Amino acid sequence: MTFYKDKPDEECGVFGISGCMSQPAAYETYLGLYALQHRGQTSCGIAVNSEEADIFCRKGMGTVPEVFGEAVMDSMTRSHPASCAIGHVRYSSSLEAQQDSTQPFVMRYAKGSIAIANNGCLVNADALRQNLEKDGSIFQTDSDAELIGHLVARQRLLKGTLEQAVQAAMPMMEGAYCCVLMSRSKLIAFRDPRGQKPLCLGKVGEAFVVASESCAVTSLGGELIRDVEPGEILVIGKQGVTSISTPKAEKGAFCVFEYVYFARPDSIINGLGVHEARYNAGRQLALEQPAEADIVAGIPDSGIDAALGYAFESGIRFAYGFVKNRYVGRTFIESDQMAREKAVAIKLNPLAAEVRGKSVVLIDDSIVRGTTSAHIVENLRRAGASAVHMRISSPPFLYPCHYGTDISRDDLLFARRQAAEHIRLQIGADSLGYLSIRGLRKATGSSRGICDACFTGHYPVEAGKSGDKFSKKLERL
């Protein structure tokens, strides 16, 4: 059995909280992870600490409510009423998902204990791991979070403080990472110099929060303060928040697919609302790829915002063309071709009263593998649509991602193998149009510095290219 989906998946979401709060830190972290559940549904975990006891961690395979049921949370909050915690949600591209790779990792070394969770992927991970192994390090998993934990622990033996150890370890790491790290006395968050993955700082009551998305802060009734800057280290303890700056990259490389698909529409990233970015993309799409039609409909959920923008710009009436089964997440399991076809109808069912006898502009955020679009178009026609004009609010997905999503091979990319006209014929649409890369940059604000390598092939860091340089740094320690 394999996972059935036609979208890339973000591999992780991170959360951390520290300070005085009305509920135990474990419970607040549970709620924060629930808000980030869209970033990973394979596994999750929560680690809590106190100055009186060692770090306690509970994690497992499944979604947040599956791993942390009511009885588990009651027991955890009573036995560990700590004021600091970190959490993680994770996605795995294989059903052979490893319990061992579930985060956070709790690591014990000569200076004590730390817990760490990461979102992203180091492109020089293999070189770093090999050099650490040569020097005696033992790894239990192939997770980058465990690797980063080893780097920090090693530096901690040479440096004065944990934050100084983080600062020394960061130049060795190349690629995308957003980490939350916790000791018995402080919470540390740090982001790679290019800012490829999202990370923000907020406040809930008197407690400070760091999270992959602002929706995790506002869902707790908190206030977004700002994004964590690329290359920034935040230290949160009894004295509040201390910021340590490390060198930024010359050009930022924030993952533009966060705006296209990954992030929740109510999140604000780099000062731009995700809903606003998708709405802008829809407006730009209407200018670039017009169509004569009766209604505009978006494929839930991330296609809805772009459809609203397309309808506004084109003057064509927006309609809810589908009813979505809210009990089906972003990924679910299939066993054969028939099950795959049934799965589309289970997740999305056309609203016949809206589409019958009408020409429909159908908006989706992307076509990656091309496994569902044909079924959606066919179901619209069965519901009575007279024509279906597919419009995509991003450019063709042509290149694999090396920075923490699950599209890492060329053969998984539909547009890489097929010309647009062949794709149109295969999905059965009357027409097909994509947003240009220029239009996407305009919608998301290219001045902020984005990574659009999945569309252009222009990688901020080539996978495997920087391993030797950073391995030499490690060998000199």
Please explain how this structure is put together.
The structure is a single chain. It is globular, with a radius of gyration of 23 Å. The chain is of the alpha+beta class. It is built from 18 helices and 26 strands. Strand 6 (105-109) and strand 7 (112-122) form a beta hairpin. Helices cover 32% and strands 27% of the residues. The protein folds into 2 domains: 2-253 and 467-475, 4-Layer Sandwich (Glutamine Phosphoribosylpyrophosphate, subunit 1, domain 1), CATH 3.60.20.10; 278-446, Rossmann fold, CATH 3.40.50.2020. A 7-stranded antiparallel sheet has the order 4-3-5-2-11-10-12.
Task: Please outline what is shown here.
This protein is α+β, with helices and mostly antiparallel strands and 477 residues long. Helices cover 32% and strands 27% of the residues. The termini are far apart.
